[in-house]
Design a protein that fits this description.
With 263 residues, the chain is of the alpha+beta class. 22% of the residues lie in helices and 35% in strands. It has two domains: 158 residues, Protein Transport Mog1p, Chain A (3-Layer(aba) Sandwich), CATH 3.40.1000.10; 98 residues, no CATH class. The chain has six helices and 14 strands. The strands form four sheets. Strands 2-3-4-8-7-6-5 form a seven-stranded antiparallel β-sheet. A three-stranded antiparallel β-sheet has the order 10-11-12. Strand 7 and strand 8 form a beta hairpin. The longest helix has 25 residues. It is globular. It starts with a helix and ends with a strand.
């Protein structure tokens, strides 16, 4: 009898292991991301952010990747009050089992104008990296993503060794042919790359030259180009204090552009 029970236990464990391996093998990794999951039917990889979307249902899965050390800091800021300040009403909080990871799982709602959306937010901490995964769908389309299905999707989250910056650049919607001695140090989502000319990967206080190339949806009007360029410059990581020396329109290969020179 004991042998039968042991065999059953081993069989059950083998089935669980097999299911986990299949799940990880089926995970889809957004371009340049170390985290991936099994997206639901109808969702495809987004070209605007790291994650997946179903535009017909206005549903999305956003994956934000951070260093492993970021987990504690992000977790500390996940209080009901902090989320409420962002318009998120928390319904439940707890944990969601993810292999070899600590987690914080929050479900709630958030309004965007007259539309109320259901939200599932999963914070996952591994020694190598931290992931913040947000699933969102309008309440009007909630049948497309029932709660049990969302939990299943989130539990399919898998991790892989991060691709190099050079590999990540291959997924950008543009190409840089001549880097002129610069090297890529970070790709932001699927839309921008940070390059530098120097030995350090983390640049503070303008220690070495930094070049950022990115693409944004939409095209500003001629009278909006300055504001658009300023917002783009201000969104660059590590750019905190700067003094504008020159800001003027210019043409790039015959197309209208705007140049800002700052220190």
């Amino acid at each position: 009898m004991r042998q039968i029970q042991t065999r059953l236990a081993l069989t059950h464990a083998a089935l669980l292991l097999s299911a986990g391996l299949v799940q990880a093998a089926d995970a889809v990794f957004p371009r340049g991301s170390s985290f991936g999951l099994v997206p639901p039917e109808g969702m495809v990889e987004s070209t605007a952010f790291a994650g997946f979307e179903d535009r017909a249902k206005s549903a999305s899965i956003l994956i934000v990747e951070m260093p492993g050390s970021a987990y504690a800091q992000v977790e500390a800021g996940f209080t009901d009050a902090a989320l409420a300040s962002k318009g998120i009403i928390v319904d439940q909080r707890g944990n969601l089992p993810i292999a070899d990871a600590k987690t914080l799982f929050v479900t709630g709602r958030q309004s965007a104008g007259t539309v109320m959306a259901k939200k599932w937010i999963l914070l996952v901490g591994k020694p190598e990296a931290t992931a913040l995964v947000t699933v969102q769908v309008p309440e009007a389309n909630a049948d497309a993503l029932p709660d049990d299905k969302v939990r299943e999707i989130l539990q399919s989250l898998a991790y892989r060794a991060p691709p190099t910056a050079q590999e990540q650049m291959s997924g950008l919607p543009f190409h840089l042919k001549d880097l002129s001695g610069f090297r890529p140090v970070k790709v932001i989502g699927n839309t921008a790359v940070v390059l530098t000319d120097g030995p350090k990967d983390i640049i503070e206080n303008a220690e070495q030259a930094v070049f950022v190339a990115g693409i944004a949806p939409g095209a500003p009007r001629d009278d909006e180009r300055r504001q658009f360029a300023m917002r783009a410059l201000g969104s660059v990581p590590s750019v905190k204090e700067m003094r504008i020396e020159r800001a003027e329109p210019l043409r790039i290969n015959g197309q209208a552009g705007f140049e800002i020179l700052a220190k």
